[in-house]
Automatic annotation (TrEMBL):
The chain crosses the membrane at residues 7-35, 41-59, 66-87, 99-122, 143-165, 197-219, 231-256, 268-289. It is a multi-pass membrane protein. The keyword Membrane applies. GO terms for cellular component: plasma membrane. This is Branched-chain amino acid ABC transporter permease. Belongs to the binding-protein-dependent transport system permease family. LivHM subfamily. Its main location: membrane. It is found in: Cell membrane. Keywords: Amino-acid transport, Cell membrane, Membrane, Transmembrane, Transmembrane helix, Transport.
Amino acid sequence: MDISFDLLINAIVAGLLLGGFYAAVTAGISISFGMLDIVNIAHPGFVILGSYLAYYININLGIDPILVSILMLPVFYALGCLIYQVYHLSFEKRGQDALRGLAFFFGLLFVTEVSLILVFGVDYRYVEASYIGPSLHIGFVDLPLRMLVPCIAALVLFGAIELFITRTFIGRAIMAVSQDQLALQLQAADPVKIKRIAFGLSIAVAAVAGALLIVIQPVEPSVGREYIGRVFAICVLGGLGSMPGTLIAAILLGIVESLTATFYGPSWAPAVAFGFLLLTLAFRPAGLLGR
């Protein structure tokens, strides 16, 4: 079989697996930015915090990092609720949730990164698990388990979020809160409480994304900066507030990056990916599944 065809298929498969991970990292932003209009640029910082907690417990107790992230969901949810309450009282309630709110989240990102540096240093950290290293070989297609397992976990996570958003009263209230708060209040729902729940959910999701990240690659405190532009780009490309759109956009971006890195070099991947984003938005300003 032609070598270039082998490379093409493997690059597409790698892009699908990478896109699944990107979807997990972007899920929280799709909730906070896409549904709540809260520009949480500190989200990647919470992803890295999730990575380090998974690392610390994995190294000291030997618990699987993905299982650690699931156990930490209530802690991250409570942290998200607390952060939103501070944000609401300090900025949103006063109508200052634009530039000052953005500075608030930038400060959170900086504090999180510096705190991790003070505790863990700047060395790269990694976890240990039975699926890190081996690969599945299906014909000429290679499936690294360190990418396949996070991708499957990300798809399960996305499915759970989509079911919660579309099948529960709170989930539908989250979708409605940024569109018509008066109508929401007429349904006996408190918009502030709904936003607090949604923001808590977005930060809880970051814990899982962080565990998936450290399974895929070693991390250090500043790695989160690499994902700030990417997660917002995927959120906008998919269509603000659309979880299925976010998943599709993440997979498309993963495939574009993988193909570019395979045939033209890794340094071209981000530029081509963002070029693809701009081209798509030129023809579809609302995003792939935007309203």
